[in-house]
Amino acid sequence: MTTPRVLVIVLLVCSVLIQVPAQNGSRTKVKPENVSEMRASIERYTADRGNLTRSYPVAISATRRARFTKFYEDQLASLKTVDFDSLSQDGKIDYLLFKNHLEYELRQLGIQTQQLSEVQPLIPFAETIISLEETRRRMEPINSAKVAATLTELRKTIDERRRAVEGGLKVKKTVANRAVLAMNALRNNLRNWYTFYNGYDPLFTWWNEEPYRSVDQALTGYTTLISEKVVGIRVPAGQAQNEPTRGQTFQANQRASSSPNARPGDTSDIVGDPIGREALMSELRSEMIPYTPEELIAIGEKEMAWCENEMRKASRDLGYGDDWRKALEHVKNLYVEPGKQPQMIRDLALEAIKFVEDNNLVTVPELARESWRMEMMTPERQLVSPFFLGGEVIQVSFPTNTMAHEQKMMSMRGNNIHFSRATVHHELIPGHHLQGFMAARHKPYRAMFGTPFWSEGNALYWELLLWDLNFAKTPENRIGMLFWRMHRCARIIFSLSFHLEKMTPQESIDLLVNRVGHERDNATAEVRRSFDGSYGPLYQIAYLIGGLQQYAMHKELVKSGKMTNREYNDALLKENRIPIEMLRAAITNQKLTRDFVTNWRFYGNP
Q1: Considering 56, 121, 525, 552, which has the largest number of Cβ atoms within 10 A of its Cβ?
Q2: Average confidence (pLDDT) over 296-312
Q3: Phi, psi at residue 397, to the nearest 5°?
Q4: CA–CA separation, 517 vs 324, rounded Å?
Q5: Residue 262: which pLDDT band, with cuts at 50, 70 and 90?
Q6: What is the reported pTM?
Q7: Which one has a higher pLDDT value, 257 or 464?
C-alpha cells in the first residue's frame, strides 16, 4: 500500500520530469506526442504483410495476387468498423493514410495483372515454373519421375517460344524488357526449387539433374535472345541480363539495385517501362496530388522558365550577358583537384549546419550533427548515380584513376564546387540525414506510408528556402543552385512524358544536356537511374513537386506569422514520411472526415 507521504513525493518527482527550463528561465510543459489509436492496427498489418510476402515469394503468381487481394479487402472491411469521429487528429490521419494505402495496393494488383497479360505471349511456360515452386512451398510430396517429364516439356515450350521470336514474333521493346525481368525472376524461382531437393533427395537428383540443367540453359539462352534481339541490350557472355539475386522477385515496377549492363558512352541499356496515364493517375491519387500529369508538366515548364530568367541575371553579374550557358561553363570548371573532394564536402556540410543554426531555422540534435559519415562511390555506381547520394552516409561521386580522361573531366565538372555547395545540404543537414534521424524517433510506425514527396521534397524545399534567405552569396553560388533547380524541373517534364509515351530515353538525355546544361555522360546516368526500376514512376517529380508543396505551406504558416521558421521546420520532421496533404492536416489541425478526398491545389493553375 502506498503511504500518503510516498504519494506526495511521487507526484513532486513527476511534476519535475514534465518540466524543462525555458531559455528565459521560466518553466514550460513538454507536450508529449499523441499516441494514435490506429498505431497498433498499422503495426500488426505491417507484420502480417511481411509474413505473406515471405510466404508467397513468386511475385507474378496468380495465387499470390489472389491472396493479397483478400488480405487488402479484409483490412479495408475491418477499417470500416472503426468509429472515425471518435479518433484523435493523429488517429484520423493514420486512418486516412491506411485507407489510402490499401486502396492503392488493390489498384496496383489490377495494374500488375494487365502488365503480365501483355507479357504472357513471351512466357507461356511461366505457370509451370510457378506451380513447381508453390507446390514446394506447400510442402507437398514430390514424384521425381513425373517432375522429370514436366521439366522436359517445359524445355520444349521454351524452345518453341524461342523459335517464334527468331521467326519475327512482333512485341513492343518495353514489353520484351518486362519479360526479361520476369524470366530472370522465374529462373531464380526454379533454381530455388531445384536446390531445395537436389542432393538431399537422391531419387530426385537421379531423375532431374539433366532435365533441370537443360531447362536452365534453354531459359538463359531465350532470355539472352530477347534481351539482345528485341530489347537491344548486349548481354556479356555467361551473364543473364539483370540476373536476380537469391530471393529477388519481379514486380510491376521492378526494383533494381544497379544497371550491370551500363557502359560509358552507351545508352542501349536504358529501356524503362512506361506505365501509361491511368497508372500515373493511380500513383498521383495515392500521393494525394490533385493534379493531372499534363498539369504537372506545365508546372515544370513554368518553373523552368523562372530558372532560365534567374540564370540570365547571374550570367550578367559575371559579365557573360544573357548567355547563361557560358556562365555555366565557367562555373563547371571551378572544381577541386583530385583527392580534395572529401575535404570540400566536409567544409560545405559544416557551412550549411552553421547557416541553419545561426538563422534559427531548425533544431539540429547534437547526435545528428555528430553521426553523419562519408564514403566514395565506385566508378560502376557512378554510371547510375553521377552525383551525391545522401542520408546518414553521404556517398561522394568523383573520378578515380580507372576512368577514361573524358569520364574524369565530366565527373569533375559535374561535381564542381558550386554544384556541390547546392547539394551537400540536400543530402545531409538540413536534408536527408536530419530527416532520417528524426523519422527514426518520431512516429516510426508510419514508415509504411513513406513517400519521396516528403523526403526528396523536403530536401528540395530547403533549397527553395535557402535561396530566399540568400544562402547563395555569389553569382557562381546562384548558378549552382539554379542548375539543380532546372534539373528538377526537367525531371518532371521528361519522367512524366516518358510514362505517357511522349518522350524516349534518348530525348530525355537530350533535354538534360540542351536545356539544363548537363555533361552528356552525367545526363545519361541520370536518365538511366530514372528508368532502371530502382525508383517508382513518380520519384523524379517528387523533388520539386514535394518541395513546392512544403514551400506553399511555409507561405501559409510562416510568412503569415502563424509559426516561426524553426517551429514550422521542426513540425515537418515530426510526422514522419507521409503524403504532404496529410502533413498539412496534422500541422494545421485540419478538420477531417472518413470520406476525405485530396483537394489541396498547392500551386494553382499553371
Answers
A1: 525
A2: 98
A3: -100, 120
A4: 10
A5: low
A6: 0.86
A7: 464
Name the band, by pLDDT with cuts 50, 70 and 90, for residue 115: very high
Asked if 407 and 524 touch (Cβ cutoff 8 Å), the reply is no
Other C-beta atoms lying within 10 Å of the C-beta of residue 94: 24
Cβ contacts of 108-111, under 8 Å, gap ≥ 24: 108/252, 108/282, 109/65, 109/68, 109/69, 109/72, 111/252, 111/275, 111/278, 111/279, 111/282
Alpha-helical runs (H) found in 287-372: 293-317, 324-332, 341-358, 366-370
Say if CB 594 and CB 82 are below 8 A apart: no
Q: What percent of the chain has pLDDT over 70?
A: 88
Interval 154-204: pLDDT, tens: 999 999 999 999 998 888 899 999 999 999 999 999 999 999 999 999 999
Are the C-beta atoms of residues 477 and 311 closer than 8 Å to each other?
no
Cell numbers that stand for 313 in this block = 541575371
- Residue 19's SS3 state is strand
The mean pLDDT of the chain is: 88
In angstroms, the CA 314 to CA 308 distance is: 10
> Do 384 and 364 contact (CB within 8 A), yes or no?
no
Q: Is the pLDDT of residue 590 over 90?
A: yes
- Residue, of 265 and 375, whose pLDDT is higher: 375
Compute CA distances 205 → 39, 121, 130, 132, 201, whole Å. Answer: 49, 31, 20, 15, 6
What is the secondary structure of 167-178 as a DSSP string? Answer: TT----HHHHHH
Cβ(516)–Cβ(486) below 8 Å: yes
Q: Under DSSP, is residue 155 helix (H, G, I), strand (E, B) or coil?
A: helix
| Burial of 330 (C-beta count, 10 Å sphere; 0-12/13-18/19+) | middle
pLDDT higher at 401 or 516 = 516
Provide the strand spans (E) within 99-210.
none
Do 433 and 427 form a contact (C-beta atoms < 8 A)? yes
Res 147: pLDDT: 98
Integer Cα distance of 394 and 188 in angstroms: 33
Confidence of residue 454 (pLDDT cuts 50, 70, 90): very high
Q: What is the pLDDT of residue 519?
A: 86
Q: How far is 571 from 554, CA to CA, in rounded Å?
A: 11
DSSP sequence for 83-113? -GGGS-HHHHHHHHHHHHHHHHHHHHHHHHH
- State the cell numbers at 581: 496533404
Give the pLDDT score at 259.
55
pLDDT value at position 389?
Answer: 78
For residue 24, how many other CB atoms are within 10 A of its CB? 6
Q: Rounded to whole angstroms, how far apart are CA atoms 400 and 376?
A: 10
Which residue is associated with the grid cell 524517433?
441
Query: CA angle, corner 229, sides to 225 and 232, nearest 5?
Result: 115
Contact indicator for 540, 414 with CB cutoff of 8 Å? no
Alpha helices (H) along 379-474: 379-382, 405-414, 417-427, 432-439, 452-468
Q: What is the 3-state secondary structure (H, E, C) of 453-513?
A: HHHHHHHHHHHHHHHHCCCCCCHHHHHHHHHHHHHHHHHHHHHHHHHCCCCCHHHHHHHHH
Is cis: bond before 606, omega within 30 of 0? no
Q: What is the helix (H) or strand (E) element at residue 523, kind and residue range?
A: helix 520-531
Cα-based angle 262, 266, 268 (whole degrees, multiple of 5): 80
Please say whether the beta carbons of 355 and 473 come within 8 A: no
